[in-house]
Specification:
Blueprint lengths: L3 H7 L1 H13 L4 E6 L5 E6 L2 E3 L2 E4 L6 H8 L2 E6 L10 E10 L3 H15 L12 E14 L2 E7 L6 E5 L1
Antiparallel strand pairs: 1-2, 1-5, 3-4, 4-7, 5-6, 6-7, 7-8, 8-9
């Protein structure tokens, strides 16, 4: 399993772009899952970096989380409205695991409350997904070129420049 902490150490360029875009949109990302009929679903989500892991947590019993319960594969794309992508964007691919650890959930809820004022303290988390990142990529636009940075476990980041 590649946690967020491990990913950020192995792919610092992609991680920096992801975090920059994640913060710029108020933590909003687009989550790609697979519906029960096999078609893709795109849903908004606000993932959080928590205790070295990428937590994909939200309202219980939503279709996106039911998708992940059935098929843990995902794609997470930073939200962007800039068609020129001047601030870059990033995508993460992998699978999720539903961590059932009440103490972890309560620490998460406390940090969420401390950071945002949103209060989930004392609530049960039936679905508390953490990511195992298997691929990461990012794009950055330069003077007349596009840099695509790609990472896979066991490999260094590599940059493909497109003119």
């Amino acid at each position: 399993m590649t946690t967020w902490k491990e990913f950020a150490q192995a792919a610092p360029r992609i991680a920096e772009i992801f975090l920059r875009r994640h913060a710029a949109t108020g933590n909003l990302c687009m989550l790609g899952t697979l519906r029960s009929d096999g078609f893709p679903r795109i849903s908004p989500v606000e993932p959080r970096i928590f205790e070295g892991q990428l937590a994909v947590v939200g309202m219980p019993d939503t279709t996106k989380f039911n998708d992940l319960a059935r098929d843990p594969r995902f794609c997470l794309h930073t939200a962007t409205v800039d068609t020129h992508v001047k601030d870059g964007d990033a995508k993460l691919f992998g699978t999720v695991t539903n961590l059932q650890d009440t103490e972890l959930h309560q620490r998460f809820a406390q940090q969420l409350y401390d950071d945002t004022g949103f209060d989930l303290r004392g609530r049960e988390f039936d679905q508390f997904y953490v990511a195992d990142i298997t691929v990461g990529s990012a794009v950055e636009v330069g003077d007349g070129h596009l840099d695509v940075t790609i990472w896979k476990p066991g490999e260094a980041e590599r940059v493909v420049r497109k003119h």
